[in-house]
Amino acid sequence: MPDIVADFVLKLKRRKIEGSHAVAKQTAELLRSVISQTRMAYTNQAASLIDAVRSVGEQLISANPVELAVGNIVRRTLHIIREEELSSTAVSYEGLTISERSDDEGDGSAEADGGPGLSAASVAAASRSTLRPRSLQTLLEDLPAAAAVPAAESSGGDSDSKSKSADKSNRSKKLKHDVIEAINELIQDIESCYDLISEQAVEHIHQNEVILTLGRSRTVKEFLCAAKEKNRSFRVFVAEGAPRYQGHVLAKELVQKGLQTTVITDSAVFAMISRVNMVIVGAHAIMANGGVIAPVGMNMLALAAQRHAVPFVVVAGSHKLCPLYPHNPEVLLNELKSPSDLIDFGEFSDLMEFGSRGGAPLLNVVNPTFDYVPPKLVSLFITDTGGHNASYMYKLIADYYSVDDMEVKRKSTS
Q: How far apart are CA 262 and CA 117, in angstroms?
């Protein structure tokens, strides 16, 4: 297992995996392998899985902090473990009789019913204990029954302890199996996100509309092509997305699918926005406040859309939904690419020589990768779970993440 983790960390550091979709899927597959090979503790099995995932997740996130999809999948996996633990705890109490008597009354009524009895307060306390950190007292209470039975007891006590040990072993196996099944469903959701988003295209793109997008996004491409397949006739303006000019690639792909496409420069966005009915773009990440981290130039496009009252729609899979806020120290909002995308070193080499004053270069080149689009500029999010407003992001985050997992780093035991 360490070799698998080390290889994946190296790929992330060297940027060998491109795209949030591929990163999210491979991260989920790696964590599934980690969980399947993790040895469960005799007590508090969920904590063993959580510690293993946190240990690996911390390495993955530090390997490529800009790729927020890594942290998203790690946190969703931790949430899955907590949910499955809570579910298994509820199932273990399912067959027990909950009596309405108080805890101070005797046990005669439970025995008279012919089955085990628990007070409602006892069940509530047991449920709350699964959500609290483990204390020294609870750890001692969870010791195997055989350790607490005196040696002078009969063989009947030994058989009871063995049955309890076998029952805990079965529960630990079931917990791991349920977690792996839930991760398989997560991987399937990531794989099918393009199809689920594309199915909504006919609800948003209408006949003879003009759509504007910027750069290249596979989600946007699938979304537009799905509308074309439903016999929607519309035109697409593609801003070229300098300096990498990914818009040229998208325009070629759309033309091959039979879509009427026009390529424009990024600086022509304000000039062309008045002819546009809707702006549809992809995203690198969707933050907890509804803000969007997207390719550079997207904020300018969003401002143009707001100025001319054009809907600004973001299409992205739910694996891009990040539970962190933009001001969080763990969030790296940008990354600087090579200056060679902007200028030719041979042509400007004499201007980039170090000057005599302080040894600083006379010419500096800055090539940022991303823009931040505030939530007030976003009209609608279209994800694999449907269309949502920016103000609804908190509800999706509550469904996918746990508050305890916002910080992936393991707490020091010192």
A: 73
In degrees to the nearest 10, what's the CA dihedral of 321, 325, 326, 332? -70
- What is the enclosing helix (H) or strand (E) of 213? strand 210-214
3-class DSSP assignment, residue 354: strand
Cross-strand partners of 289: none
For the CA atoms of 319, 325, 328, 332, the dihedral, rounded to the nearest 10 degrees, stands at 50
Query: How far is it, in rounded angstroms, from Cα 150 to Cα 1?
Result: 41
Backbone angles phi, psi at 168, to 5 degrees: -65, -35
3-state DSSP of 32-74: HHHHHHCCCCCCCHHHHHHHHHHHHHHHHHHHCCCCHHHHHHH
Beta bridge partners of 261: 236
Collapse the DSSP code of 62 into the 3-class scheme (helix H, G, I; strand E, B; otherwise coil) and give the result: helix
| This prediction's pTM | 0.80
270-312 pLDDT, tens per residue? 999 999 999 999 999 999 999 999 999 999 999 999 999 999 9
